[in-house]
Specification:
The termini are far apart. The protein has one domain. The protein has a 3-stranded antiparallel beta sheet, with no helix packed on it. By secondary structure, it is α+β, with helices and mostly antiparallel strands. Bound molecules: zinc ion. The site of zinc ion has 8 residues, from loops.
Length: about 55
């Protein structure tokens, strides 16, 4: 379930899209707007393990 990254509340609603087409959400608890996926690309645990070795 999608939760607010700030207050962790599950009360989020769709709130339009960014210029790049990413779905925007808004938290109904704290009012913060955020996107479902952060701008950073998802890093798998395997990749993190390699980063730790460097
Ligand atoms: Zn919130």
């Amino acid at each position: 379930m999608l939760t607010c990254p700030t207050c962790k509340a599950p009360h989020v609603v769709k709130y339009g899209k960014t210029r790049s087409g990413t779905q925007n959400y808004k938290c109904r608890e704290c009012g913060r707007r955020f996107v479902e996926h952060p701008t950073k690309k998802y890093i798998s645990p395997e990749t993190w393990a390699q980063i730790d070795k460097l």
